[in-house]
Amino acid sequence: MVTAREIAELCGVSVATVSRVFNQPASVSGPTRERVERVARELDFSPNESARALSRKQSAMIGLVWDTDHRRPGWRHPFLQDLLLGLKSALSSHGYHLLLLATSDDARSRTPGVSLADPVGYVSMTRRHHLAGLVLIDSGSDAEAFTAFARSGLPCVALDVAISGPKATYVTSDNVRGAADAVAHLAGLGHRRIATLTGPRDNTPAAERTRGYRDGLAAAGLEARDDYVVSGDFYRESGFVGMRRLLARKEPPTAVFAASDEMAVGALLAARATGLRVPDDLAVVGFDDIEVASLVDPALTTIAQDKPGFGTAAAEALLKMIETDAAPEPVLLPTRLVVRDSCGA
Question: HEC states along 91-156?
Fold first, then answer.
Protein backbone atom coordinates (compact mmCIF):
# COMPACT_ATOMS: atom_id res chain seq x y z
CA MET A 1 0.00 0.00 0.00
CA VAL A 2 1.33 3.44 -0.94
CA THR A 3 1.43 5.87 2.01
CA ALA A 4 1.08 9.64 2.27
CA ARG A 5 4.73 9.82 3.32
CA GLU A 6 5.84 8.17 0.08
CA ILE A 7 3.66 10.54 -1.96
CA ALA A 8 5.19 13.47 -0.07
CA GLU A 9 8.77 12.31 -0.75
CA LEU A 10 8.06 11.82 -4.47
CA CYS A 11 6.50 15.28 -4.76
CA GLY A 12 9.06 17.06 -2.55
CA VAL A 13 6.45 18.27 -0.07
CA SER A 14 5.51 17.51 3.53
CA VAL A 15 3.07 14.83 4.67
CA ALA A 16 0.88 17.63 6.02
CA THR A 17 0.72 19.13 2.53
CA VAL A 18 -0.41 15.79 1.06
CA SER A 19 -3.09 15.60 3.74
CA ARG A 20 -4.32 19.13 2.94
CA VAL A 21 -4.53 18.30 -0.79
CA PHE A 22 -7.18 15.70 -0.02
CA ASN A 23 -8.86 17.35 2.96
CA GLN A 24 -8.44 21.11 2.39
CA PRO A 25 -7.49 21.45 -1.30
CA ALA A 26 -8.16 25.21 -1.40
CA SER A 27 -5.30 25.75 1.07
CA VAL A 28 -2.69 24.32 -1.34
CA SER A 29 -1.34 26.19 -4.38
CA GLY A 30 -2.54 24.99 -7.78
CA PRO A 31 0.75 23.55 -9.14
CA THR A 32 1.53 21.69 -5.91
CA ARG A 33 -2.00 20.34 -5.63
CA GLU A 34 -1.97 19.14 -9.25
CA ARG A 35 1.44 17.46 -8.80
CA VAL A 36 0.29 15.58 -5.67
CA GLU A 37 -2.99 14.52 -7.28
CA ARG A 38 -1.20 13.28 -10.41
CA VAL A 39 1.29 11.16 -8.46
CA ALA A 40 -1.52 9.84 -6.26
CA ARG A 41 -3.49 8.74 -9.33
CA GLU A 42 -0.48 7.07 -10.91
CA LEU A 43 0.25 5.10 -7.74
CA ASP A 44 -3.42 4.34 -6.94
CA PHE A 45 -3.06 6.12 -3.61
CA SER A 46 -5.99 5.90 -1.17
CA PRO A 47 -6.00 8.85 1.26
CA ASN A 48 -8.45 7.15 3.62
CA GLU A 49 -6.28 4.08 4.05
CA SER A 50 -3.18 6.21 4.45
CA ALA A 51 -4.86 8.32 7.11
CA ARG A 52 -5.75 5.17 9.03
CA ALA A 53 -2.14 3.97 8.84
CA LEU A 54 -0.73 7.31 10.03
CA SER A 55 -3.21 8.04 12.80
CA ARG A 56 -3.42 4.53 14.22
CA LYS A 57 -0.02 3.23 13.08
CA GLN A 58 -2.02 0.48 11.40
CA SER A 59 -2.69 -0.24 7.75
CA ALA A 60 -5.75 -1.80 6.16
CA MET A 61 -3.69 -4.89 5.33
CA ILE A 62 -4.26 -8.30 6.92
CA GLY A 63 -1.31 -10.66 6.63
CA LEU A 64 -1.94 -14.27 5.58
CA VAL A 65 0.81 -16.48 7.01
CA TRP A 66 0.90 -19.68 5.01
CA ASP A 67 3.71 -21.92 3.82
CA THR A 68 3.24 -21.93 0.03
CA ASP A 69 6.38 -23.93 -0.78
CA HIS A 70 5.71 -25.78 -4.06
CA ARG A 71 6.85 -28.98 -2.34
CA ARG A 72 3.87 -28.73 0.02
CA PRO A 73 0.55 -29.52 -1.70
CA GLY A 74 -1.69 -27.76 0.85
CA TRP A 75 -2.16 -24.54 -1.12
CA ARG A 76 -3.72 -26.50 -3.98
CA HIS A 77 -6.49 -28.09 -1.92
CA PRO A 78 -9.97 -27.06 -3.18
CA PHE A 79 -11.31 -26.66 0.36
CA LEU A 80 -8.69 -24.06 1.24
CA GLN A 81 -9.28 -22.18 -1.99
CA ASP A 82 -13.01 -21.90 -1.23
CA LEU A 83 -12.25 -20.88 2.35
CA LEU A 84 -9.91 -18.11 1.22
CA LEU A 85 -12.54 -16.70 -1.12
CA GLY A 86 -14.91 -16.36 1.83
CA LEU A 87 -12.18 -14.78 3.96
CA LYS A 88 -11.19 -12.27 1.27
CA SER A 89 -14.80 -11.31 0.59
CA ALA A 90 -15.57 -10.72 4.27
CA LEU A 91 -12.44 -8.62 4.82
CA SER A 92 -13.00 -6.59 1.65
CA SER A 93 -16.51 -5.68 2.74
CA HIS A 94 -14.96 -3.98 5.78
CA GLY A 95 -12.26 -2.15 3.79
CA TYR A 96 -9.39 -4.54 4.53
CA HIS A 97 -7.10 -6.31 2.08
CA LEU A 98 -5.42 -9.70 2.34
CA LEU A 99 -1.64 -9.81 1.88
CA LEU A 100 0.05 -13.18 1.38
CA LEU A 101 3.30 -13.33 3.34
CA ALA A 102 5.82 -15.63 1.64
CA THR A 103 7.04 -18.27 4.07
CA SER A 104 8.33 -21.04 1.79
CA ASP A 105 11.72 -22.67 2.27
CA ASP A 106 12.86 -20.88 -0.89
CA ALA A 107 12.01 -17.49 0.62
CA ARG A 108 13.69 -18.43 3.88
CA SER A 109 16.97 -19.10 2.15
CA ARG A 110 16.92 -15.73 0.33
CA THR A 111 15.43 -13.31 2.81
CA PRO A 112 16.74 -13.26 6.39
CA GLY A 113 14.26 -12.23 9.06
CA VAL A 114 11.05 -13.36 7.33
CA SER A 115 11.11 -17.05 8.17
CA LEU A 116 8.74 -19.06 10.27
CA ALA A 117 11.92 -20.72 11.50
CA ASP A 118 12.67 -17.32 13.11
CA PRO A 119 9.28 -16.39 14.61
CA VAL A 120 10.64 -13.44 16.61
CA GLY A 121 12.03 -11.88 13.44
CA TYR A 122 8.80 -12.61 11.63
CA VAL A 123 6.72 -10.91 14.30
CA SER A 124 9.04 -7.88 14.10
CA MET A 125 8.57 -7.76 10.34
CA THR A 126 4.76 -7.72 10.66
CA ARG A 127 5.01 -4.85 13.15
CA ARG A 128 7.28 -2.82 10.87
CA HIS A 129 4.65 -3.04 8.14
CA HIS A 130 1.89 -1.98 10.59
CA LEU A 131 -0.31 -4.92 9.64
CA ALA A 132 -3.73 -4.71 11.26
CA GLY A 133 -3.83 -8.45 11.97
CA LEU A 134 -2.83 -11.93 10.87
CA VAL A 135 -4.58 -15.04 9.57
CA LEU A 136 -2.58 -18.20 10.21
CA ILE A 137 -2.89 -21.39 8.16
CA ASP A 138 -1.02 -24.41 9.54
CA SER A 139 1.31 -26.29 7.19
CA GLY A 140 2.21 -28.95 9.76
CA SER A 141 5.45 -27.47 11.10
CA ASP A 142 4.50 -23.99 12.28
CA ALA A 143 3.75 -24.60 15.99
CA GLU A 144 6.62 -22.49 17.35
CA ALA A 145 5.86 -19.58 15.04
CA PHE A 146 2.12 -19.70 15.76
CA THR A 147 2.83 -19.63 19.50
CA ALA A 148 5.03 -16.55 19.01
CA PHE A 149 2.34 -14.81 16.97
CA ALA A 150 -0.34 -15.62 19.56
CA ARG A 151 1.78 -14.22 22.39
CA SER A 152 2.84 -11.11 20.48
CA GLY A 153 -0.30 -9.07 21.08
CA LEU A 154 -1.00 -8.85 17.32
CA PRO A 155 -4.61 -9.71 16.46
CA CYS A 156 -4.36 -13.30 15.17
CA VAL A 157 -6.87 -15.85 13.95
CA ALA A 158 -5.69 -19.38 13.15
CA LEU A 159 -7.58 -21.75 10.88
CA ASP A 160 -7.90 -25.34 12.11
CA VAL A 161 -5.20 -25.04 14.79
CA ALA A 162 -5.81 -24.09 18.42
CA ILE A 163 -3.93 -20.99 19.59
CA SER A 164 -4.41 -18.70 22.58
CA GLY A 165 -3.08 -15.29 23.52
CA PRO A 166 -4.12 -11.75 24.45
CA LYS A 167 -5.48 -11.13 20.94
CA ALA A 168 -5.57 -14.61 19.47
CA THR A 169 -8.29 -17.12 18.67
CA TYR A 170 -9.07 -19.80 16.11
CA VAL A 171 -11.82 -21.16 13.87
CA THR A 172 -12.38 -24.84 13.14
CA SER A 173 -15.09 -27.27 12.12
CA ASP A 174 -16.60 -29.88 14.42
CA ASN A 175 -14.40 -32.58 12.94
CA VAL A 176 -15.09 -35.13 15.69
CA ARG A 177 -18.85 -34.90 15.33
CA GLY A 178 -18.69 -34.93 11.55
CA ALA A 179 -16.60 -38.10 11.42
CA ALA A 180 -18.82 -39.79 13.98
CA ASP A 181 -21.87 -38.90 11.86
CA ALA A 182 -20.22 -40.49 8.81
CA VAL A 183 -19.62 -43.74 10.68
CA ALA A 184 -23.13 -43.69 12.15
CA HIS A 185 -24.56 -43.38 8.64
CA LEU A 186 -22.54 -46.35 7.39
CA ALA A 187 -23.42 -48.44 10.44
CA GLY A 188 -27.07 -47.54 9.95
CA LEU A 189 -26.87 -49.03 6.46
CA GLY A 190 -25.78 -52.33 8.00
CA HIS A 191 -21.99 -52.11 7.56
CA ARG A 192 -19.90 -53.77 10.26
CA ARG A 193 -16.44 -53.63 8.70
CA ILE A 194 -15.84 -49.89 8.40
CA ALA A 195 -12.33 -48.59 7.66
CA THR A 196 -10.91 -45.07 7.50
CA LEU A 197 -8.40 -43.21 5.36
CA THR A 198 -6.94 -40.56 7.68
CA GLY A 199 -5.04 -37.35 7.05
CA PRO A 200 -1.45 -36.53 8.06
CA ARG A 201 -0.51 -37.66 11.57
CA ASP A 202 0.63 -34.16 12.65
CA ASN A 203 -2.54 -32.45 11.41
CA THR A 204 -5.14 -31.44 14.02
CA PRO A 205 -8.29 -31.88 11.88
CA ALA A 206 -7.00 -35.29 10.74
CA ALA A 207 -6.49 -36.40 14.33
CA GLU A 208 -9.95 -35.16 15.30
CA ARG A 209 -11.59 -36.99 12.40
CA THR A 210 -9.82 -40.20 13.40
CA ARG A 211 -11.11 -39.72 16.95
CA GLY A 212 -14.61 -39.14 15.61
CA TYR A 213 -14.30 -42.31 13.52
CA ARG A 214 -13.44 -44.32 16.65
CA ASP A 215 -16.24 -42.62 18.62
CA GLY A 216 -18.69 -43.55 15.87
CA LEU A 217 -17.59 -47.19 15.95
CA ALA A 218 -17.96 -47.32 19.73
CA ALA A 219 -21.44 -45.76 19.58
CA ALA A 220 -22.48 -48.41 17.05
CA GLY A 221 -20.98 -51.23 19.13
CA LEU A 222 -18.38 -52.01 16.48
CA GLU A 223 -14.78 -53.12 16.93
CA ALA A 224 -12.04 -50.57 16.28
CA ARG A 225 -9.42 -52.39 14.23
CA ASP A 226 -5.95 -50.90 13.80
CA ASP A 227 -5.58 -52.61 10.42
CA TYR A 228 -8.59 -50.64 9.20
CA VAL A 229 -6.84 -47.29 9.81
CA VAL A 230 -4.59 -46.16 6.95
CA SER A 231 -2.85 -42.77 6.86
CA GLY A 232 -2.93 -40.47 3.85
CA ASP A 233 -2.27 -36.80 3.10
CA PHE A 234 -5.78 -35.55 2.17
CA TYR A 235 -5.01 -35.95 -1.58
CA ARG A 236 -6.35 -38.33 -4.22
CA GLU A 237 -3.25 -40.47 -4.76
CA SER A 238 -2.95 -41.34 -1.09
CA GLY A 239 -6.63 -42.29 -1.07
CA PHE A 240 -6.07 -44.61 -4.03
CA VAL A 241 -3.00 -46.26 -2.50
CA GLY A 242 -4.58 -46.53 0.94
CA MET A 243 -7.78 -48.06 -0.42
CA ARG A 244 -5.80 -50.64 -2.37
CA ARG A 245 -4.06 -51.60 0.89
CA LEU A 246 -7.38 -51.95 2.69
CA LEU A 247 -8.90 -54.06 -0.08
CA ALA A 248 -5.89 -56.38 0.05
CA ARG A 249 -6.65 -57.28 3.68
CA LYS A 250 -7.65 -60.87 4.39
CA GLU A 251 -10.99 -59.49 5.57
CA PRO A 252 -11.46 -56.26 3.59
CA PRO A 253 -13.87 -53.57 4.75
CA THR A 254 -17.27 -53.13 3.16
CA ALA A 255 -17.26 -49.39 3.84
CA VAL A 256 -14.71 -46.62 4.23
CA PHE A 257 -14.78 -43.14 5.73
CA ALA A 258 -12.15 -40.92 4.09
CA ALA A 259 -11.01 -37.81 5.98
CA SER A 260 -11.26 -35.72 2.80
CA ASP A 261 -13.24 -35.82 -0.43
CA GLU A 262 -10.01 -35.97 -2.43
CA MET A 263 -9.03 -39.21 -0.69
CA ALA A 264 -12.57 -40.49 -1.08
CA VAL A 265 -12.33 -40.00 -4.85
CA GLY A 266 -9.05 -41.95 -4.75
CA ALA A 267 -10.90 -44.71 -2.90
CA LEU A 268 -13.59 -44.77 -5.60
CA LEU A 269 -10.93 -45.15 -8.28
CA ALA A 270 -9.20 -47.93 -6.34
CA ALA A 271 -12.46 -49.84 -5.97
CA ARG A 272 -13.10 -49.52 -9.69
CA ALA A 273 -9.55 -50.68 -10.50
CA THR A 274 -10.08 -53.72 -8.28
CA GLY A 275 -13.32 -54.63 -10.03
CA LEU A 276 -15.61 -53.61 -7.18
CA ARG A 277 -18.84 -51.70 -7.58
CA VAL A 278 -19.66 -48.66 -5.46
CA PRO A 279 -21.91 -48.77 -3.49
CA ASP A 280 -22.85 -52.43 -4.04
CA ASP A 281 -19.49 -53.85 -2.94
CA LEU A 282 -18.03 -50.88 -1.11
CA ALA A 283 -19.65 -47.80 0.44
CA VAL A 284 -17.64 -44.57 0.58
CA VAL A 285 -18.08 -41.37 2.62
CA GLY A 286 -15.82 -38.33 2.31
CA PHE A 287 -15.33 -35.08 4.20
CA ASP A 288 -15.40 -31.42 2.98
CA ASP A 289 -18.08 -31.38 0.24
CA ILE A 290 -15.84 -29.81 -2.38
CA GLU A 291 -17.23 -29.34 -5.88
CA VAL A 292 -15.94 -32.65 -7.24
CA ALA A 293 -17.99 -34.58 -4.65
CA SER A 294 -21.19 -34.02 -6.63
CA LEU A 295 -19.53 -34.54 -10.03
CA VAL A 296 -17.91 -37.98 -9.66
CA ASP A 297 -19.77 -41.18 -10.51
CA PRO A 298 -21.24 -42.29 -8.22
CA ALA A 299 -21.77 -38.93 -6.54
CA LEU A 300 -20.06 -38.84 -3.18
CA THR A 301 -21.78 -38.94 0.18
CA THR A 302 -19.79 -36.59 2.38
CA ILE A 303 -19.57 -34.48 5.50
CA ALA A 304 -19.96 -30.85 4.43
CA GLN A 305 -17.96 -28.05 6.02
CA ASP A 306 -19.25 -24.48 5.84
CA LYS A 307 -16.47 -23.18 3.58
CA PRO A 308 -17.72 -19.59 3.07
CA GLY A 309 -18.78 -19.47 6.72
CA PHE A 310 -15.31 -20.57 7.74
CA GLY A 311 -13.71 -17.56 6.08
CA THR A 312 -16.44 -15.21 7.29
CA ALA A 313 -16.09 -16.40 10.90
CA ALA A 314 -12.32 -15.92 10.76
CA ALA A 315 -12.71 -12.40 9.37
CA GLU A 316 -15.33 -11.43 11.95
CA ALA A 317 -13.20 -12.71 14.84
CA LEU A 318 -10.16 -10.82 13.55
CA LEU A 319 -12.06 -7.58 13.02
CA LYS A 320 -13.52 -7.81 16.52
CA MET A 321 -10.01 -8.02 17.98
CA ILE A 322 -8.80 -5.11 15.85
CA GLU A 323 -11.69 -2.90 16.89
CA THR A 324 -12.09 -3.89 20.56
CA ASP A 325 -8.68 -5.27 21.62
CA ALA A 326 -10.48 -8.32 23.03
CA ALA A 327 -10.02 -11.92 21.90
CA PRO A 328 -13.33 -13.68 21.17
CA GLU A 329 -13.94 -17.30 22.07
CA PRO A 330 -12.82 -19.94 19.54
CA VAL A 331 -15.40 -20.65 16.84
CA LEU A 332 -16.57 -24.24 16.28
CA LEU A 333 -18.57 -24.54 13.06
CA PRO A 334 -21.10 -27.37 12.63
CA THR A 335 -20.78 -29.96 9.87
CA ARG A 336 -23.56 -31.59 7.89
CA LEU A 337 -24.05 -35.05 6.35
CA VAL A 338 -24.82 -34.85 2.61
CA VAL A 339 -26.20 -38.15 1.32
CA ARG A 340 -25.54 -39.00 -2.32
CA ASP A 341 -25.02 -42.24 -4.25
CA SER A 342 -21.73 -43.65 -2.99
CA CYS A 343 -23.40 -45.35 0.00
CA GLY A 344 -26.54 -46.70 -1.63
CA ALA A 345 -29.93 -46.21 -0.01
Answer: HHCCCCEEEEEECCHHHHHHCCCCCCCCHHHHHHHHHHCCCCEEEEECCCCCHHHHHHHHHCCCCE
